[in-house]
Amino acid sequence: MSHTAVVDSKTAWAGDNNSPFGAGYGKLMMWFFLMSDALSFTGFLAAYGFYRHSYGDIWPSAENVFTHFPFMHGHHPLLYVALMTFILIMSSVTMVLAVEAGHRMDKKGVIKWMFWTIVGGLIFVGSQAWEWYHFIHGTELGAIELGIGTYTLPDGTVEHTQGIIARWADESKQALLLPWREVATDNTSAYLQLTGQAMQDAVAGGHEVYGANLTHNEYGHPLFGDFFFFITGFHGTHVFSGVVLNFIIFVNVIMGTYQKRGHYEMVEKVGLYWHFVDLVWVFVFTFFYLV
Amino acid sequence: MEHSDQPYKYAVHHSEEEGKKTRRMIWNMFWVLLVITTVEVTLGMFWKEWGVSWHFVKMTFIVMTIAKAYFIVAYYMHLKHERGSLQNTIIVPFVLLALYLMYHVFTEGTFDTFIRHYPF
Fold this sequence. Notes:
The complex is a heterodimer of chains A (291) and B (120). Chain A has 291 residues and is an alpha+beta fold. In chain A, 59% of the residues lie in helices and 9% in strands. Chain A has a 5-stranded antiparallel β-sheet, covered by helices on one side. In chain A, α2 runs parallel beside α10, α5 packs antiparallel against α8 and α8 packs antiparallel against α10. Chain A is elongated. Chain B is mainly alpha-helical. Helix content of chain B is 74%, strand content 0%. In chain B, α1 packs antiparallel against α2. The radius of gyration of chain B is 21 Å and the shape is flat. At the A-B interface, α2, α4, α6 and α10 of A face α1, α2 and α3 of B.
């Protein structure tokens, strides 16, 4: 802790003189980067919250959208997302175990745990791709996006139908369901049922939608799709870059770069990034899928 | 950092003994995170059968999320054992941002009328 150490151009940015934060330069910069990145995600989720509540009556409930599970038929609301969350938490555990092994200069331990972290990350990215596929593809029934017109709600108010998504009551396609009650109130929607002539008019005036893209969404408001693609896409990009960074450091560990250097701080830095990716998912899971 | 002749002093090392303790902490935290996530998913599946209000469920989710975030940042990202100056640099901006967002929710939106119509 020499205070008389000479600070020259080499050491000033290397962090091996006195840091007011007691942390190395690289680690500090990783923290600051993560902070700004977290602000971006906060912005996305806040925007999502505002729009979700602006369109509460026609906003789809995530548990009615993400119901698929690989190799299983039927309705499994949010089960796969829960599994993805578990996989990401698990890879965070293996990452922190790699960091711990690094503190003991245990090269074999670092290799083992980083390997499993990378595997977990790849499974997660694959799962996201799979979920995107099902969301884009949609259901076999599809839905009707209504054209210009009006309908009267049970409480007497008159709503314009344009752009409203009406879903089929069942596979016989004999009745259409129009949403009308604020989903946010109790997370259940009440529907106005259209049958007979009213239903045929609605079908004739509107058009069929299957799945979701940036302008149409068979599950409800198109903004739900936009936010889904944008937020999970941005997060997925982070996971992918995390896997790439982890892989680079993994190769370095195998080549003995950090053993020679005398410390595994680089593993700690990518570890911070990886935990951050997990942290963001904790928030996405709650605010996009659960509430 | 390799350019200097001085050994790099911010690298963390610990003994096998301390490592054992750290590993126990890591697995304890894993169980905490797993239990919280399981409770969240179970609550999401059965809250209608249990007869609790959606509002209560929502608030529980948010509290649990913040708890998980705390455990990840404090223990896995090791912020709890960093210097106070570093802790504050990271935490204070987010506390301010959270207060700012809450201010908007309570004053600009419809949350106040909403909560009067649908109390917990």
